[in-house]
Each structure stands twice: as structure tokens, then as C-alpha cells.
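Try this one yourself first.
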């Protein structure tokens, strides 16, 4: 069974490592709270000084730390292991119990304040890293690590990365601190988010590296100007390509380098939504004038015009037309022309409002199913927002 030896004691604050204005010294927090009476009494300072030089042995389960087949699915067992360490890392005499109680209060203060802490990595197991917090040992699950580690050394397994981090100081945030259940959980991702999320905005374009690929989309790590990967966003399956995508894995593979655009930032939930397809011209928001060659030199696979009298509405359009005519402000709906395109975007019927400006109160809609596209002229006194709301109401009524 592998044994890790750790020196108990305080660790420097991240303000010295990260140079972040929000990562101020925790002493300022203590001076403004009742915790100063618990953590900053002179007798405590003296005892802490002698205590920090003591050395204790921390044992980690060999089955989780050394097994090559261990995965992040072991995080529940690993968390229990870390909880056991919290119970045993400090001698159970009165002074040390009082110190540990004060450190739990400090952990809760970090949790509620969102301050960043510089935590020393004491060891690791199958589910994550063991992080020193004063006299306590907490747990950092592998999914809460910054993507910079795996992107820097993509050939290494998560356990090889964890081993290389032992003894280093990581910027972390406390995301759970419950003394009763002995749960002290950290996140490096949240700490890195605090520093770098302010440097991004909707519309920014990044080079990125594909991380995990799921049925619903792919997670992409964003590469910052210094070459490091700090933040991760999700490219939903609907934002991978303008073509119909049945399986994300047919297009994206872990480790691929891609270019992405930020289309949404949820700062409350620390989430970034990305798009690959929006870096290409959107074929669905263009009128047929742009995709039909003006010199009539289109090949057999290109879009082609048809006489209005011979156009048969796509399945489902008749019902939509009838409902649209029931909306106030819509006077006429008719198909102006149709064509066939090379790509298949969706087998289901889709309606899109063109970006083209209105002409004589006429707006253009595009209806698409498979390769077939029909251009619809909508005569209305409504503005573009009014048309969008009318379409939404109609589509809710039509089965």
C-alpha cells in the first residue's frame, strides 16, 4: 500500500501565485468576521507555528491509487477515502480539535466568499487529488481539474498527471465544506474560471482542442494567447455543422484542433456555449437569389427555380399557411419558387425567416425538408419580431 508523507501547515494564498485582484489574502476576510476571534488569537498562532512543523503519515487505498484501470467513476469511493483522512489527519487532543474546528470555519468562509486558495497536493487516488487545507485534507475530483493539465500532456493518463502534481500548489475554490459529514471538496476549474472568464465575451473566436465527445455534443478546451487551455465550453450537436449530424463522433474526435465561436456565456453556472458552424455562412438564412447562379449555369444538383403554379407545398406547409392567415397583420402567404440543394440539413420540415430586408411589406421565409427548399412570400404589416412571434404561435398550434 503506497504511503504519502505530508507536512501539515498553512499554504500561501493564491494572490501570490495568480496575481488576481479578487484573490486577496484570507486574513482580510478574517479581520472582517467573527472568525478572527477563532483563528487569529495569539495562543492559536503560537500553537500553529509548532504544529506546522509536525509530520504525519497519510495512507491512500492502493486499490484506487495504483490500479491502471481506475477511472473517475471511482470518485465516490475516493471521496469516502478523503473523508476518512479528514477524521484522522489531526491528533484528537483538545488543542488540535479546537484548531480543526477553526479550520472548518475557515473552509466554510472560503466556500461562501468564493475566495481562491493555494492548496498543496498531498496525494491522489482513483477519483481525484488530496488537497491540504491548513490542518484538513480535502478532495478535488478529477473532473474539477483545469483542462490545462491534460492539454499540456495529452499522452498521459489522468493518474500519471495526478502523480506529477503531488507536492505542487494548485489554485482551488472550496465548493463544499460540511464538517458534520466531513466533506471538503475543491475545484480548480472554478478557480480558473474566476480569473479567465472576465477575458471572454460572446462573439469571440478561439482555437480549441476537443476533449470528451458525447451523444449531445463535444466539449472543447479554449486556447488562450499564452498557449494554455484554461476554459472549456460545449459545442452542442446542433452547432457542429450546417449538415445533418446523426453522430457527433462522425465529425469530431478527442484531440482534434478546431476553431470555435462563443455564442453564449452563463456566468452564474460557469458555462460556455460554443459553435463551429456559425463560423461558416448560414445557408438557411439566405434567399434563393444568392444560391441560384444568376447566369442559369447551375448543374443538375444545384437549386433550380420552378413555376409557382407547379409547386406542390412541402408536407405540413398547407396547415401552417392556414394558421398564418389567422394571425392579425398577415394578409397573404404564397410559395414563390423552390429548388433542390446538394446538402441535407434536416429530413424534418423547418421554417426559417430570411435575413433579407422586407420589400413592400413582403418578408421571405424558407421552408426546407431534405434537399428540397421552398421560398415563401409573406405579405404583412408586422415587423420582424412580430413575424417571429406569429410563427411561434402557429407552430405551437400545428401538430
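Now uncover the answer:
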Amino acid at each position: 500500500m503506497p504511503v504519502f508523507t505530508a507536512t501539515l501547515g498553512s499554504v500561501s494564498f493564491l494572490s501570490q501565485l495568480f496575481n488576481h485582484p479578487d484573490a486577496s489574502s484570507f486574513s482580510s476576510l478574517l479581520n472582517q468576521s467573527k472568525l478572527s476571534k477563532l483563528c487569529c488569537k495569539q495562543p492559536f498562532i503560537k500553537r500553529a507555528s509548532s504544529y506546522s512543523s509536525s509530520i504525519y503519515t497519510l495512507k491512500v487505498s492502493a486499490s484506487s491509487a495504483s490500479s491502471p484501470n481506475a477511472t473517475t467513476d471511482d470518485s465516490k469511493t475516493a471521496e469516502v477515502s478523503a473523508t476518512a483522512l479528514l477524521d484522522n489527519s489531526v491528533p484528537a487532543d483538545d488543542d488540535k480539535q479546537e484548531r480543526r474546528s477553526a479550520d472548518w470555519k475557515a473552509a466554510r468562509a472560503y466556500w461562501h466568499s468564493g475566495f481562491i486558495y493555494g492548496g498543496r497536493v498531498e496525494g491522489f487516488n482513483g477519483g481525484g487529488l488530496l488537497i491540504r487545507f491548513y490542518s484538513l485534507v480535502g478532495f478535488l475530483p478529477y473532473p474539477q481539474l483545469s483542462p490545462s493539465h491534460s492539454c499540456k500532456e495529452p499522452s498521459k493518463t489522468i493518474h500519471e498527471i495526478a502523480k506529477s502534481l503531488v507536492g505542487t500548489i494548485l489554485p482551488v475554490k472550496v465548493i463544499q465544506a460540511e464538517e458534520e459529514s466531513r466533506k471538503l471538496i475543491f475545484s480548480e476549474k472554478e478557480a480558473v474560471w474566476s480569473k479567465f472568464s472576465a477575458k471572454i465575451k460572446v462573439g469571440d473566436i478561439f482555437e480549441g482542442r476537443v476533449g470528451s465527445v458525447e451523444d449531445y455534443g463535444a466539449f472543447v478546451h479554449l486556447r488562450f494567447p499564452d498557449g494554455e487551455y484554461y476554459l472549456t465550453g460545449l459545442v452542442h450537436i446542433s452547432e457542429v455543422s450546417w449538415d445533418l449530424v446523426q453522430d457527433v463522433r462522425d465529425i469530431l474526435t478527442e484531440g482534434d484542433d478546431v476553431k470555435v465561436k462563443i455564442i453564449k456565456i452563463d456566468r452564474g453556472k460557469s458555462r460556455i456555449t460554443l459553435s463551429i458552424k456559425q463560423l461558416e455562412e448560414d445557408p438557411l438564412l439566405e434567399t434563393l437569389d444568392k444560391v441560384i447562379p444568376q447566369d442559369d449555369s447551375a448543374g443538375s444538383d444545384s437549386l433550380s427555380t420552378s413555376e409557382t403554379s407547379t409547386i406542390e407545398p412541402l408536407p405540413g406547409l398547407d396547415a401552417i399557411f392556414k394558421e398564418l392567415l389567422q394571425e392579425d397583420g398577415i394578409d397573404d402567404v404564397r410559395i414563390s419558387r423552390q429548388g433542390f440543394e446538394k446538402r441535407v440539413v434536416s429530413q424534418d420540415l423547418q421554417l426559417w425567416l430570411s435575413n433579407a430586408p422586407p420589400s413592400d411589406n413582403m418578408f421571405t421565409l424558407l421552408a426546407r425538408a431534405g434537399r428540397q427548399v421552398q421560398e415563401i412570400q409573406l405579405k404583412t404589416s408586422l415587423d420582424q419580431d412580430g413575424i417571429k412571434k406569429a410563427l411561434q404561435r402557429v407552430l405551437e398550434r400545428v401538430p
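Discussion: DSSP finds 13 helices and 16 strands in the chain. Residues 249 and 261 are 20 Å apart (CA to CA).
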